[in-house]
Every structure is written in structure tokens, then in C-alpha cells.
User: Fold these one by one.
Assistant:
Number 1:
Amino acid sequence: MKIVVTGSTGFVGRHLVPELLNEGHELLELTRDTAKSENLYGAATQKHLLDADQDGLKNALKAFQPDAVIHLASFLTSADDYNNVTKLIDSNIIFLCSLLDALKETDLQLFINTGTFAEYFKGDGILKPAYLYAATKTASRSFLDYYSNVYNFKNVNVIPYTIYGGKDSQKKIIDIIYESIGAANPVDLSPGEQVLDFIHIQDVVDFYKALIKQAATVPHNSTFQLGTGKGSTIKQLAATIEEASGGKTKINWGGKAYRPSDVMYAVADTELAKAVLNWSSNVSLDQGVKIFLGDK
């Protein structure tokens, strides 16, 4: 299959692209940093440098004629800061519209859009964005619906929950907890009672691969919540790390107050993935933490 990938050099992209290549797919990366892409994938992928040239993007996509798009790129921040609004809209809405417009002269079958569990502030499956980033991801769905209905391709929204594992330049909560072992001073964290669905990066990669394999039968305008379906508090994650590592974390629970936008319950409803794709996660939290520690 011919697949366009955005965000190919990001956290999920760096783990997904090599596996798509191993399965024989032909990939076109849309990237703002071709040097970084070259370092990661060399000549294994085609590359188009994203700039302000809309005609250039249209021509590249028309020449490639993709069967599917995996849209991973976004500007992510949990800060409630007006100064980020322009960048959020540019990255998460305007770029999406630019991409969708450029796809009009292709025979695209499936557009896979990636959202965030923070679109569901109350954790009940009802769209109510927790912060500005999540609001732009929710708003982007309307633009995707418009283009997919007018230009006759299927769209799917994927909502990853709390991803961990693998190599990432940005620290996640699991890294902060692990690095507190042996620290000179306790690390200030929230009270740690948030219930989150921790999903290993390998499960995330396997899910996107399953979507691609079943592109012909996946329902139009469906939303898949990508997680394990099991919740753990952050304190329970810390206990799992202690048990697997044999070390003692040094955390001042409650040293930081909860923020008004903190999502207190975020556990994926995995029934649609099971019913439509026959997919469920394979890596338990205990197993994933051991893999995480083995990669250190």
C-alpha cells in the first residue's frame, strides 16, 4: 500500500515507520526536517519538504497517489496560554486543511487522524476538551468530516491514551518516576490519584498496522480509543516500577496541586477495536514496565 505519513520523525512515527517499511508499504513522508528524516530512514522513504508552497504539496501527492494517510503530526501543549493559540491553530487545523486540500486530486481511500484522550475531559466518551490543544484536535474533526464527505474517502479518528516505552526525547510521567530512584531530593508530583490507561508503544504501532491491513473494511467516520481498557493510578505505576526495578522511588506526592484541566479518569473503551479489527493490546503494564527498564 502507498501511505503518506505526517509526524514520521516524532515519537510514534519513529517506531511505526520502520515496521510499515518492513511490511512492504511504500511511504511518502511529509516533513519539515528532511535531514532528520534522512538520518532515520535514508532512502527507504520518499520525502516532501513542507513549506508554504501549496502547489508543491499538491503535485507531490498527485504524483504519489496514496491509498492511505496516517496523520500523526501536531503541536502539543497542555499549557492554557493564549500565546500558543496561533501555533496550535496553524499546526492542528490549518496544516490539516492544507493537507486535505492537496489530496483532492488523488484516489485516497483512508485518512487516519490522530487525536488525544484529553478531548474527553470527564473520561465519559463525550467530547469536552480539557485544554486548548485538545480543543484544536476536536475542532479539526469537523474539517476532516467535510473533506472526506465531499471528496469521498473514509476517515478514522484514533485516540491514543497514555503512551509509554521506546525512545523519546520528551520525558513522560514514567520517566520522571523512574528517575526519582536514587535522586538526591524528592520529586514533587500531584497526589497521584489520576486513573490513566498506560499503553506500550509496541501496542500503538500494532494498532496502526491493523488499521492499514483492514483499510478496505474499516467503517467510515469511526473513532477508535487506543488503550488497554485498564486503568491504573500514577501511584500504582510508581509501585509497579519499584517492584520491577527493586529500587525505591523518591516522590513527594501532593507536592504539586492538580491543575484545573487535569483529566482525572482516562481509560479507553476498546470494544470497537475488538469488534471491528479483532485487536486488543498485548503488553500488560507489568510487562511494559519491564521492557521499559530493559531499554534503560
Note: The chain has ten helices and 14 strands.
Number 2:
Amino acid sequence: MSSLYPDLTALNLFRLTAREGTVTAAAQALGMGQPQASRALAALQRRLGLVLLVRSGRLLVPTDAGLLFLEQADRALAEVEGLWESARTISAGRRAPIRMLVQSHLAHGLMPQVMADMRHAFPSLRIDLDIRQRNRLTQWANRAACDCVFATLPHDASWSVQTPLFDAEYLIGMPRNHPLKDVRRVKVEDLIGHAFVNVRAGLTTRDKLQEMCAMHNTVPSISLETGSVQSALQMAGAGLGLALCDPFTANNHAGNADLTFCRIVDGPTLNYGLSVKDPGEGWARKIAEILIRRAGAILARYLGDGR
């Protein structure tokens, strides 16, 4: 039965050849000789009944069938890597779950997809998610027995190695009948005189709104204050004013027909990073990769050329 399926080395060899463009480079990466690698690739294609690679000039490139198979091979090898990581976790005797501390505005618009991807990659790995607002996050991170923290930078988690992941621009959330609703990128000076729903003191978004207005020698006009960006957007959708928000909280309101979002010309930004106790662990590298990919899809939706 096993003879029906290609071995993992052959799959990895094909994947590396497709990316590097030469059998020699792929063979070197795997510690194989070039003749052995060429025979393995030929055997793989015979077994599959597919032509996976063709020569284009001095390089080997995937055929149409090769591109389709490459996508499936990537998924299969990622699952195998997750399986080995699960085995290492079991071997190391880790029974307690990974404890991850996440800034509150990321909990709904981003983390469900990230957690689903982590479960797929590491089926036996348990992750406990703690959610905290930014003004309490550092204190909690240093008091609790965390394995990692995902939040805006900087945050002082002295026990960890901190890695920047990506930046994100703030958006303006507004009711769909607002006079600025058709503006793709609004200037700060165009916001002067329009009422804002603000968040309470101690939250980053409040500070960013004040800083943004101060750069134009003005102060924001506040219609009311609320306890979170989440509720500020709900109030904005009800017509009570504009709300400064991050793309991930905006994504949590994607189904709200009463809201629309626009970018801000030279507006404030957020810097996101991951702090990990042991960045060498496989799950830590994987979660960083997933966070960048999943966040990138959301940022492209809200910060791309379209609305």
C-alpha cells in the first residue's frame, strides 16, 4: 500500500526545486547528491503520472499541474511538520497549555482565525487565551505565567524575546450617511468640526486621536465617551459621531450595514509584535507566521486601494 504514495523526501525535493529553480540547490539544501536528487524527482513524476517541472532557460519551473501539486504538497508537508512538533511537545512532557496573552482589540477580529490555523497545525497543542486591555497588559504579562504576548509595541515583558511583526494604520469608522462617507482617504483637517465618539482615558486610541488632532493645532470634538473601540464603533454606526479604530476591530464589524470605513492621510499607526519566552519552539515560529498571514489579509482589505 505504501508504494502508492511518494515519500516525504521526494515531496520536499520537488518543493525546493520548484522554489530554487535547480535540482542542485534543492539537493544541497537536503544534503543529497545531485544525481540522487534527479533520480528521485524522475521517480516521483513517474509514480504520479504527472510532469511537474519543465526547463525554462537555465531554470526548472513548475508546469500547470506542478503548481497545483505544489500547493497540495505545501499543505501536506506543513501538516507533517505539525505532527513532528506535536511529538516533540509530548516527548518534552508539556502537559500544561500554552498561555497566550492578547490585547483586547485583537480578540474578535483576528484571533479566531489564528487559533483555528494553530489547531490545524498542532492538533494536540492546547492554547489558553487571556484577553487584556492595553493599559493593563504589561502588568498582567509580568505577573502571570505567560508563554507569549501578542500586542502593540512597545510592551515591557522582561521575561521574553520581542519580535516586531507588522504595522497597521488607524481607520475612521463612520455612519453610512455621513458627509465624508465617499472619501477614500480623509485628511485630518477635513475631520475638524465633526463629532467623535471617544474611548476613556488610559486607552491607546484616545491618545492617538488627541495626538492626531494636536498635530493640526486642534482638539477633537467629542460627542460621548465609551469604554472600548468596539462600543465606539457601535455608537458611530448609530450616527453618534466618528470613531478612530484599528483595522482588526473594524474587521469585527464587517457585517454592520450601518458602518463604513476610510483611511487617514498621514494618520497614526500601530506597531504589532510577538513576545515569546522561548522563540526557538516550533509553535512560536508557526504562530508568528500565521499572525502575519492572517493580519495581512485583513490589512489588505481595509488598507488596499479599494474601500
Note: The mean pLDDT is 86.
Number 3:
Amino acid sequence: MLHGTFDPVIASRSWQKIFDDAVDILDEASSSGPVAVAVDEFQRVADVGSRGMGGAFKAAADRLHRASLVLAGSHLTVMEKLTKARGAPLHGMGELFVVDVVPEEAMVPYLQRRARTGAKRLSKASGAYLYSQAGGVPNDVQWLAYAAFEEAGDRPAIDEACVDAGMRSVVARQAPSFAERFEALAPSQQRVLKLLAARPTAKVYAKEFLSGAGVANANAVKKAIDVLSAVELVHRRGGMYEVASPFLRGWLLG
């Protein structure tokens, strides 16, 4: 068994030294058997320091010969910049897996079990409605499910009305953040985002979409979508461009 201690003077040391110490502990543990470490929300390393921590993880991977690193992130665009783009710190390191959403037939029974632990009923139909309203993304589904549970109050069942009320509750709480991000966009980007909220489509370069977005040509739409994708406001799923967050979509449709 591996034991660790907290050094009271650790705050005076650099984050790189702290990280190196953690890698040394991992390497020591791997000498006695297989070791794997999983880092969730890995895209956050891009925001640490002036140049991010991607290079530090590259150095760690080079040092570790008997341990496996599982680096998981929920923002595909940022993860690809860290692993696939030219000059990416983790380019060519390991294998990239893109995992789809949890299927409805697996997620709805899970939601029903969670509802029962809270002494609530959730029918299959209401669970499917909740799943569809949240867009199937596990984090969004669970967020909306919790809000719907809160809205149910003393009632014995979570129904579609609770889901709708939960959606309004989440949107209201997130409204200041949504407004700030929206106002930071250029006018053309705002129009494209609002149009995709109302009508997700695969044909973003069609004349009808250009007219609805109020842009002059396909190149203007491409630039807007590139920016919106880079900041994780829009994504492409199943060939369709859509607003990435169901809660942002709800706010945009107001």
C-alpha cells in the first residue's frame, strides 16, 4: 500500500515541483505492479499558467514506463488542440478515443433508480422526456434530473412538468453567465448562435441559413461557427450543427 503525507511547506514550492513529486510517487508505485491514473476534465490543463500544463504531462508520460495515464475531457475541441493539432504538447502520445453520449436505454433506467433512492417515481416516458430535453449528454442529463427532483418537492413522482420547471430553474440560475458569454460575441456570431438554437441544421451554408443569420456569404458563416465551436458554444453531432448546451439553448429561445 502506498502512503503519502502533506508537507506544511509545500505552498512555497512551485507547481512544477509538486507535479514532479506526484509523478515520482506514481513511478514508485508502478515498480510493484500495474498502475493507472485517471485525470478527469483534462482540458483544464490548458488554462494553468501562461502556457498550460500539457508539456508537463508529456514529460511525465516519457518518464513513466510501467504506469498508464488516462486523460479524460469533456471539451472535444480543447482536447484535440492538446493532442492532435500541429505542435500540440501531447501529439502522438497514446490513442485518442471519442466517446459518444450514454444511450437513452441505459440512462433512463439509471435515472429511475436514482429517483427511487429519493423516494420518487420516474416513469419511463418522463425519463425519456428528461433525456431528450437535456440532449443526452450525461452531465446535462444529471443536472436537469436533479433540478426536476427539486421541483417535484413533496410530490411522489417526477413528471414532465417537473422537468420543464427544472429546465427553467437551471436557465434562470445560469442566465448571468450566458448573457456575459453572449455579449462577448460579434453580432454575426450572435445571430448564427440564435438561429442554431431555433433550428439545428446540417446545411449551414445553404441560402436559407445565410439569409436567416443575416450574413453575406458562406465564408462568414464558417468563421462564426469556427469561433463558436472553439469556445464550446456550438458542436456538430450526427452531422447537425447545434447549440452545445441545452440550458444555453433554452436561454437563447427565452
Note: The chain has three domains: 10-83, 104-174, 185-253.
